[in-house]
Structure formats: C-alpha cells, structure tokens
Design a protein that fits this description.
The chain has 15 helices and 18 strands. With 459 residues, the chain is of the alpha+beta class. The strands form four sheets. A seven-stranded antiparallel beta sheet has the order 15-12-14-13-17-18-16, with helices on both faces. It has a five-stranded antiparallel beta sheet with strand order 5-6-10-8-9. Strands 1-2-4-3 form a four-stranded mixed beta sheet, with helices on one face. The structure holds flavin-adenine dinucleotide (FAD).
C-alpha cells in the first residue's frame, strides 16, 4: 500500500477506506454532463475527530479532498477529481438532540434531510426546508449548497435555519461557528460564509438548525391553465395574498407531457394528467388551510384556470405534490440525459424569462421544458438531450449557458439553490464580476492556503 493510503487507513476504523473498484459508486453526483475523475480513495469517517485525522493525512500528502454527502447534487460539485480523497459523511447519521424549549435540532452532517424532519415532527416541531431530494440528500449537503425546496416560498432556505456548525478546517482543526441562540452577532458571520460554500471552505460535521412549531395539516390544489401567461398572472396574485401559500410550484406543458408519459408507462401512479399549457401546485399549512385553498382556487379560476382540483386532506395534497417530485426522472427519460438548471430571477421578470427560454429553444434547436419553484422566482429549465449525439450535447451546453446569461441579464442569478459546482463555472465571472471573484478567491486562500478542499469548483 502506498504511504498516503497507510496514513489515511490509520485515521479511520477498519473497512472505512475504499480503493480501486470500490470507489466507483462515489465518483459522481446526479448531474449529467459533468466531468468525473478517478479518486485515490474514499474515506468513510464516523466521527468529527476521524474527519479531522483524514484531513491532516491529506494535507501531509498534498491530496485534494472532495467532501460528499449523498451525491444527490446536480452541479457536479461532489464529483471525483483525479487522485483526490472522497470524504463522504454518509456514516455520520446520529440525531444528537432535539430541544423543544430551544426549538433546535443538533445532528451529524450525514443525517438525511427527511430524517431530520421526522425527528423534529416526533417532538411536535417542524423543519421546513424540503428539497425535492429530501429522502436521499444529507443535511451536510443541504448546508453546503444552501438547498431550497418547495416550502421556501413561505419559510426560506436552509441558510435561514442554520444556527451553529461544527466544521473541520483545511488544516484539520475543528471549530464551532455560529450560535445556538436566536440572536448572536459576536464575530463575523462565518456560518453564512460556510453555508453554500460547496465543500470549498471546510467540512461540516455537525449542524444545529432552528425548528418551528408544527404547522396545521396541509391542504392543496392543482390548477391547469390554457396559457403559461395566465398561470404566471395567477401566481402573482397568490404571492400577494396575506394567506401566504406554503408551496407554489409550476409545471409547463412539456413537464406535464413527460410526467404523464411516466404514468402511462406504469412507472408512476396515476391518474393521467390533463393536457394543459401550465399547471400550478399550491398548498397552505396555515391554521385554516382548507379555507385558504378554497380562496386560492377562486383566484386560479379568476385567472382562467380550466381545471382546479382541491385536496383538503394532507395525504391527497401530498399525492398532488408527488407529480412535482417526478420532474427530474421524467425529463431524464425523454432523451437519456438532462441538464437541470436552477436560474432565479426577480418575480417580475418571470414572464420575460419563460418567453426568452422558448426563443432560445427554437434558435438553438434544443428541447427545454421548465418547471419549479415559481413562488421564489426560481425555475428549473431542463435541457433534455441524447448523450450519444455530440451535436446535441454541444447545442445543449450552449443553451444551458445562454439560459444563465438570460437570467443574469434579467437581474437574476445562475443558481438559486443547486450551486455552481463545475457545470456553471464558465458563467460565474460574468455574473459576479472579476473584483468579487477575486475577493472570494482571497477568502478561499485564507482558509485553505494549499487549495485542497474541492479545488476548481464554485469560483
Ligand atoms: C430529484 C432531485 C431533486 C432535487 N431537488 C432539489 C430542491 O428542490 N432544492 C435543492 O436545493 N436541491 C435539490 N436537488 C439537488 C440536491 O439534492 C441538493 O443540492 C442537496 O443539498 C445535495 O445534498 P447531498 O447530501 O446529496 O450533497 P452532495 O451532492 O453529496 O454534495 C453537494 C455539495 O456539497 C458538498 N458537501 C456535501 N456534504 C458536505 C459536508 N458535510 N461538508 C462540506 N461540504 C459538503 C459537496 O462537496 C458538494 O459541493 C435535487 C436533486 C435531485 C436528484
């Protein structure tokens, strides 16, 4: 065994260092079209101290480190780099504490998002951020990407819930950042810096999140519209409501066709979907959720909805939302691969964004269908392509960057929630400007002078 592998093995329990073919399942996240190298090894630590020992062994041998949660990311940010050590926290799955008095939960970074939500619910509390991937993603990955989800429109994103982090820095030192308390301004906001840093500034091993009292049972509706413009106008009216929806999602005609095809093939539960130009999925978890949903239904009809289905029990409301969760697999099955964007624009620019995307699809001869978190101005244009057709691949990558350029020109951003990873790297300087990119690299150099943590990603 080469010396670095000896040192890594000594830092870990028996069986927690994988090499050779055993590393294959850890080489890539779910992003099609992102490069993945061949790692030296995969480390599967079980404690913060073991994470620190692995980092020290890597530093001593000049090895790059790629932190990993569940590899559900869609930006290539957790993909292997040649010769790197994949530092995967999937074995750190303890829920350490749920405090009903402080309304916080403290968990290890490898806890799946849904397990955190369940632990909170068992104590009569609520962890709102719910990425579509919450059954697989880890809270460490959510922190590192500042993940969003369906309920952000009412509650905010992961950043809004992170109170305190335990982080292993690039020199192997263990630090605690932030405050368990509601308030706390001692020192700079290093938690804010760490959240969304995509594994480039430190390795998160423990997370304390704020919780809320459990909301009322959810009620929901789906509303089909004859035009996307009508759906956007209805959404604008819904967001202006004092009865704030807890979910406001959008599916365009292409999304509906792709999901319906999955249902027709028996790959997803029915009933079949209506043919429509756009569908809104809206929920309320307010104290009078049933009445809220009736009110939302009236707004949808007033804006021309042709078919409105309401569900005042949580199971039926969840079943409607399952459609939304099928988006990624449904679109991938269209052509074999998909580039999944997550551009975000000020809500007033949503009509211009959708119109511009349609124009780009025609001009660049690509397939783009769009769904996502309309209430946040955060949409997922999906570029479905045939990975075996080099022309199609090249056109789709061009269109991917053109959609980002469009969103930035409309006052938005390349990435609302998935992160930059490697896929969006070519677009970042244009959005942030060279001075801001340089400032970010200076912060990176201060915290990781050897540039070992997830190098070549994010900025
Ligand atoms: C079907 C589907 C639906 C999705 N829906 C959403 C959605 O609604 N909203 C959303 O925001 N995202 C969504 N995603 C994307 C993805 O699930 C999120 O980005 C998620 O936060 C990634 O978590 P993970 O544990 O899988 O992290 P990974 O994919 O393993 O890693 C993601 C990034 O975080 C870093 N990282 C991971 N763990 C740590 C750690 N402990 N310390 C430091 N860095 C770390 C990695 O280096 C990488 O840069 C979806 C993905 C899929 C496949």
């Amino acid at each position: 065994m080469p010396e670095p592998l000896h040192e890594l093995a000594a830092a870990l329990p028996e069986g927690a260092l994988l090499t050779g073919e055993a590393t294959e399942p850890y080489r890539r996240d779910t992003a099609d079209g992102a490069e993945a190298g061949v790692p030296l090894a995969v480390a599967l630590p079980e404690t913060t101290e073991q994470v620190a020992a692995v980092v020290r062994a890597c530093v001593a041998n000049g090895l790059a480190i790629v932190p990993q949660g569940a590899r559900s990311g869609v930006a290539g940010a957790a993909n292997a780099i040649d010769g790197a050590v994949m530092l995967c926290l999937e074995r750190m799955t303890a829920v350490l504490e749920v405090s009903t008095v402080d309304q916080v939960a403290r968990v290890e970074a490898g806890v799946r998002t849904i397990e955190l939500a369940r632990a909170a619910a068992d104590a009569g509390l609520f962890y709102p951020p719910d990425p579509g991937s919450w059954e697989i993603s880890t809270i460490g990955g959510n922190v590192a990407t500042n993940a969003g989800g369906m309920r952000c429109v009412k509650y905010g994103v992961t950043r809004d819930f992170v109170r305190e982090l335990t982080v292993v820095l690039a020199d192997g030192e263990i630090v605690r950042l932030g405050h368990r308390t509601v308030k706390g301004v001692a020192g700079l906001d290093l938690v804010g810096l760490m959240v969304g840093s995509e594994g480039t500034l430190g390795i998160v091993t423990e997370v304390t999140v704020a919780l809320r009292p459990a909301p009322a049972p959810t009620a929901g509706l789906s509303a089909a519209f004859p035009t996307a413009e009508a759906a956007l106008a209805a959404a604008e009216a819904l967001v202006a409501e004092p009865r704030r929806p807890s979910v406001l999602e959008f599916l365009d005609a292409g999304c509906l066709v792709a999901i319906d095809a999955m249902i027709a093939r028996g790959e997803a539960p029915g009933p079949r979907l209506p043919a429509a130009e756009a569908l809104l999925l809206v929920q309320s978890d307010g104290p009078d959720a049933g009445a809220d949903v009736e009110h939302y239904a009236a707004i949808a009809r007033a804006h021309g909805a042709t078919l409105v289905e309401t569900a005042d029990d949580p199971a039926r409301a969840d079943a409607l939302m399952e459609l939304r969760r099928l988006l990624h697999p449904a679109l991938r099955s269209l052509r074999g691969a998909v580039l999944n964007e997550d551009v975000s624009v000020p809500r007033a620019q949503l009509p211009a964004l959708l119109e511009g995307i349609q124009r780009l699809a025609v001009d660049l001869d690509v397939t783009i269908v769009t769904g996502g978190h309309l209430g946040d101005g955060n949409l997922h244009p999906f570029l479905a392509y045939d990975p075996a057709d080099p022309d199609d691949v090249a056109r789709s990558i061009r269109a991917y960057l053109a959609v980002i350029d469009l969103a930035v020109r409309l006052g938005g951003t390349a990435t609302g929630e998935h992160g930059v990873g490697s896929l969006k790297l070519p677009a970042i300087e244009a959005e942030l400007g060279p001075r801001v990119v340089a400032a970010q690299r200076a912060i990176k150099a201060a915290l990781d002078p050897q540039g070992l943590l997830n190098p070549g990603r994010k900025y």
